[in-house]
Specification:
Oligomer: single chain
Largest sheet: 20 strands, mixed
CATH architecture of the largest domain: 3 Solenoid
Number of strands: 55
Number of helices: 4
CATH topology of the largest domain: Pectate Lyase C-like
Distance between the termini: 88 Å
Amino acid sequence: MAVFLSLFAGAGAQFFSSNGVILSGGLIYTYTAGTTTPLETYTTSLGSIPHTNPIVLDSAGRVPSGGEIWTTVTSAYKFLLKDSTGVTIATYDNIPSPVYTDNILYNEGGTNAVTRTVTSKLQEWLSVKDFGAVGDGVTDDTSAFTSALAAATSNQSVLVPAGAYKITGTLNGDFVTFGDVSIVGGYVNYVNNLAASNACVTMYRTVNSNNSTSGKWVVLTPEGALNTTGTTTEGLQEAIDYATQYGYDLYVFGGPVKPPNFPPPYDSFNGQEPAIMFLDSGITFYPLQKGVIKILDVTLNFNGGVTGAGITFDSIIIADIDFSGSQIVCAAASVGVSFNPTNYLPNDSAAGIAISDCRIKLCAVVVPAGSTCVLINCTTGPFIGVDLNISEINGGAYGVLVNPATNGFIANKIFVLDSHLQTSAAILIGTNATNGVLAYGNSIEFFAQPAVGGVGIDLWGTGNIIKTTVLSSQGVVAVCIKLESSASQNIIEAGTLQGTVTIQDISTARSNLIHYGNDCCSVNLNGVNQSIPDSTPTKLGFNVKSFDQMNTYNVATYRWTPGVPGVAQIVASMNFVDSVPVGTVMQIAVYKNGALYKQTSDVSGALVANNAIAISVFAQIESSTDYFEVWGFQSGGAAYAMSGVATNSWAMYKRG
């Protein structure tokens, strides 16, 4: 039984009568406070041998059996002191156990402060040590953490005192600390260090440390230097873990390359060589909320032993991640940078598992053949509302591969300054018709130079805005823009497209709007009238053109070949300079690929000059080889002349 030395009598006390006479044979009765219910006291701190009740004082007026009175920790007492004849000398009521906090009052002391018990004060914080956590790095404290979380009320944080806590598995909960806490073995998501909310973790290198010698990178935390002994990532993974674990921002400083020769008088200055981290393991960023991660001017060199992803990002929200000036170079990794939200965000259960509302800047990502530079995998959570800026992606099968899966790739802004040497596609948005419809509302701008036979952008998504230029500078590109079956309602603005096929549209809906080069041209006769034979369909020989910057109209064959799938508007007019007879049937038609597509008919109502007919149609461009012509017809019984004046007879072709 837990007992404490009584505040009444305690140890070795001697009692006297009111006249100062030693109270030999005196009596001490013990009751529950405020009552006459007897309550035991004990002879020693073991709490195993009770006193008699009443306690009979010895001849020296002291408590027998060692001279001590021990009380239970949860009880308040009433003590009644009498002489040997039973005459009451004094009563002492409401005497608490010395450490029973329910019996001790607390008052902050300020104006309007409220008095309450120490128990209520202490219970403002719930600690893992209240549930048996040891914090020695050896004892498994998982159950203590779990029990503390279970006991926490709504919106109550659980305190983790300084120490090393061994955890099995992953714990999701709201933990806080004021000291240096490390988690051994497992993962706790997450422990927020309240003592250093404005502090950050920094990592820097020693001068000219661009070789594989260990110990050249230093990690500093608000609590001191971080021990990275045994690291396989030059301390980078440990720095990331520490920062994300305790809610710190992280700054990694490498430094730019020193110029080989400075002009005088600076030519004698010493500077740093390139900052390189030689990494034997992949890097993982655990769920991050409201954080800043900056890894600046460093080459992250993942060796051949790293065959999975070089860098993997879990859930992210309201964060700023910046790799300015840094290269991510993978010798054998299947993915350079993987965005793969898998675990819950630290403080936002509503957002759950997601990468959302953040800004991410990657400078350069280099991967081997067959790999993917940047993978966005939405299998477990969505990728939504992200500003992703990439300066360069180099090599591999894919530059950026987006798998919307079942959660979606939605309303993102993606900018790729230069994607080159990809053998499959510089950018793949969606992987099939089922998940393609979940890639929508994105703004994607990129410049691509795929490898020989590669594709610029392969698009399964819907309702996206795409701006691109695709060049064959690394070899002849197979397809610049490929619109898959589920691609619909996308707006595509293309600058220069160099490839065997500029735009391949196999979409089912055929509702994509494509702007490529100059979208229109205007044609007319060169001032010489054209004779239209009687009752014979005749191609109108418009042989003067304007605005045709993409050279889509052939003045020799009188054909317009837009070269880009989509929708075209064709407007044409045929004006007869001769007076055709009354009742003459006049027709003007648009032919597609040599066959009648649409036509308009009219009948001459008067024997006058300048009888005219016009047509305006929308046409579907299904192939880059589709071509269009304008034909005329009249049944006046003889040949009649179509006016060669540009304002009278003409055609206008507009794509998009």
